[in-house]
Design goal:
With 419 residues, the chain is α/β, with parallel strands linked by helices. It is built from eleven helices and 20 strands. It binds guanosine-5'-diphosphate, 6-O-phosphoryl inosine monophosphate (IMO) and magnesium ion.
């Protein structure tokens, strides 16, 4: 059976955790394919709330197989904290979680390097999550990284060499740091990792596909944060797009089935970088407050704005999205007017293709909609939505050419309409 993919179409935090949890009953296996603890995926059910960072969002339901793929970067200390906290709340993962030996390790000094590079950039900083993501992927690509499989053989020497290399860079940058505490926790994390099934996960994934088992690949971040297609250089360091599921799990492109593209009915971004439809007024503030738009990992305020159809259509194209999933429209219940950017005006010209660069001269051109201006949280059937809401959904379907198959009207697993 082909593997399906769930991924974000905007700047992350679209609601991937919730959607993966909702879709999990249909699948035998849930697999993360890129990113690391920069992610924060929220799940709510039975009055409980969990935020997952490196562990796949399928972990709460039955005895599904969960996989952390080779495309992921793993911090053993943060992983230990996350897995232990899940174990405490009754979710023991050691038998159900498989970790790729080819996944790269985030070293304590990668986190320090992340801080050092950000400090060196000054005002041009990316506003990273500070989890060492960029430096770890940099070491992977420059063939200097340490992988999970390395912890099983001659690890001390490999670690010492990598640490010495990082120390030299940090000394050249004249960056003061103390890695002692971080390193202590990290080493405990390394020992903890050995309790898990460390495998060549691409073999397992392909065996599952061959044996007609269903796999859901869980993306992190969003298409606008993709290293190739996002708003570079204000992006993360991995391929967040559908192709990332192929390289991050070892799945051939012709074995990809459904591609679920998730978007918020408005738009948010956390960290620096361009955001053409950003709102600096009371509407933006109201979306932040009602939508609890504060980073689940860093607690930072998320910037809020209108939906951007130029960017959304680009994301749909790059990912080959087959079904759209719309999140958080309930956060817009109070608005009398809703806007969507349908084009950009750049130096007097109207542009509908996503441009090379989103700089200060990009001005959104808006289409206005009458807001539904009522509570939609309790609606569970598409037909029961107010006409204004349906017009908004149908506009998005027409613009993208893709059906909106799932609509989420609240954070809970049950607050979901599947069409
Ligand atoms: P992810 O990183 O894509 O998994 O998304 P996050 O978990 O970082 O952010 C999404 C936030 O919105 C979380 O706090 C969710 O609980 C919440 N959420 C998800 N879907 C909905 C929805 O339809 N309505 C509302 N009001 N909140 C939602
Ligand atoms: P989820 O999976 C939102 C952003 C950071 C920063 C940029 C680079 O929860 O959607 P990094 O630490 O990756 O080097 O930071 O990317 N970023 C996210 N924004 N959601 C995320 O993950 C993010 N992961 C990274 O804020 O702008
Ligand atoms: Mg998140």
């Amino acid at each position: 059976m082909k593997a399906d993919v769930v991924l974000g179409l905007q700047w992350g935090d679209e609601g991937k955790g919730k959607v993966v949890d909702v879709l999990t009953p249909k699948y035998d296996t849930i697999a993360r394919f890129q990113g690391g603890p920069n992610a924060g995926h929220t799940l709510e059910f039975n009055n409980e709330k969990y935020i997952l960072r490196s562990i796949p969002s399928g972990i709460f339901q039955g005895d599904k197989i969960n996989i952390i793929g080779n495309g992921v970067v793993l911090d053993p200390a943060l992983f230990k904290a996350e897995a232990e906290s899940l174990a405490k709340s009754g979710h023991d993962l050691t038998k159900r979680l498989y970790i790729s030996k080819k996944a790269h390790l985030i070293l304590p000094t990668h986190r320090i390097l992340d801080a050092a590079y950000e400090a060196a950039k000054g005002d041009a900083k990316v506003g990273t999550t500070g989890k060492g993501i960029g430096p770890t992927y940099t070491d992977k690509v420059s063939r200097n990284g340490l992988r999970v499989g390395d912890i099983l053989c001659d690890f001390e020497n490999k670690y010492a060499a990598a640490k010495a290399r990082h120390a030299k860079v940090l000394s050249d940058m004249k960056f003061d740091y103390d890695v002692t505490e971080l390193e202590k926790e990290w080493m405990q994390g390394i020992e903890y990792l050995k309790k898990f099934n460390l495998i060549d996960s691409e073999i397992l994934v392909n065996d599952l596909i061959k044996n007609n088992k269903s796999i859901l690949c869980e993306g992190a971040q969003g298409t606008m944060l993709d290293i190739d297609f996002g708003s570079y250089p204000f992006v993360t360091s991995s391929n967040t797009v559908c192709a990332g599921a192929c390289t991050g799990l070892g799945i051939a492109p012709n074995k990809i089935g459904e591609v679920y593209g998730i978007f918020k009915a408005y738009c948010t971004r956390v960290g620096s970088g361009p955001f053409p439809t950003e709102l600096f007024d009371e509407v933006g503030d109201s979306l932040r407050v009602i939508g609890h738009e504060f980073g689940s990992v860093t607690g930072r305020k998320r910037r809020c704005g209108w939906i951007d159809m130029v960017a959304l259509k680009y994301s749909v194209m790059i990912n080959g999205v087959t079904s759209l999933i719309m999140m958080k429209a309930d956060v817009m219940n109070h608005l009398e007017t809703v806007k969507a950017a349908v084009a950009y005006e750049i130096d007097g010209e109207t542009v509908t293709d996503f441009p090379y660069e989103l700089n200060g001269s990009v001005k959104p051109v808006y289409k206005e909609f009458k807001g539904w201006n009522c509570n939609i949280n309790d609606i569970r059937k598409y037909d029961e939505f107010p006409v204004e809401f349906k017009e908004y959904v149908e506009f998005i379907e027409k613009e993208t050419g893709v059906p909106v198959k799932i609509i989420s009207v609240g954070p809970d697993r049950d607050e979901t309409i599947i069409r």
